[in-house]
Amino acid sequence: MACLLLLMMLTACAASPQDLSGKMFTFPEETKTANVRLMTASRNFDAVTVCLRSITDLSRNHALFSLATKFVSNGFLIFKSPTEDVITLIVNGKSINFEVQDYKRNVWHTTCSTWDSASGLVQLWFDGKPSIRKFTGGSNITEPSVILGQEQDTFGGGFDVKQCFTGMISNVHMWDYILSPCEIQRYVDNLNFTPGNVLNWRALNFQIGGRVLIEHEQLPCL
Ligand SMILES: *[C@@H]1O[C@H](CO)[C@@H](O)[C@H](O)[C@H]1NC(C)=O
């Protein structure tokens, strides 16, 4: 009984979410191991919004947000394509390219993407600018494995050093519904917004593998 209680406490401890406000994940080297696994609050989605901030100096392709399911490794993937100023969004294995303006290196960028299965439309908001809305279709995303820093070619693994992310990522939120344009604007402007109900940067359940650091965001001096 005492053993069981201890086990329950340990499990609760391991699962206790952290408030990462003012912090960022630093991915300081190119490896096929460094990654952060994010535990989602729910496991069946018919709509998704993901927002995050990131900075990198990579010019090759790299994953910004990799969600795999047992059925499809690219369940919901935000991917910087090797083509200049193109971000690829893959939902349920179907890939859509978005032309963005100025995916500059060594600059913090905000990326939000939305999808819902009812309309089958995806949209990308890059630095607060909405793309056109494109059709991808798709059915529910279930039992997700979400990873930052690496691109999953299999469920929870299959990392490729040539697709890994180096740089910093912060403010990751995921909702199981579509945020309105005004709510997205509030996120982009760092105003008060409704935090993600699936992934919440202020109460994040995660597990770090390899060399990834939690550091304070480097803000400009006043
Ligand atoms: C799809 O997801 C929605 C929202 O979670 C749920 O209400 C619905 O039952 C799901 N449909 C299937 C076929 O799993």
Automatic annotation (TrEMBL):
Upper classification of the organism: Eukaryota, Metazoa, Chordata, Craniata, Vertebrata
Q: Mind telling me what this protein is named?
A: Pentraxin family member
Q: Which cofactors go with this protein?
A: Ca(2+)
Q: Which organism is it from?
A: Mola mola
Q: Which residues form the Pentraxin (PTX) domain?
A: 21-221
Record's signal peptide: 1-15
InterPro entries in the cross-refs: ConA-like_dom_sf, Pentraxin_domain, PTX_dom
Q: Which UniProt keywords apply?
A: Calcium, Disulfide bond, Metal-binding, Secreted, Signal
Major site of localization recorded for this protein: secreted
Presence of keyword Disulfide bond: yes
Q: Give one Pfam hit by family name.
A: Pentaxin
Name the Gene3D superfamilies for this protein: 2.60.120.200
Taking the record's annotation, the residue ranges forming a coiled coil are none
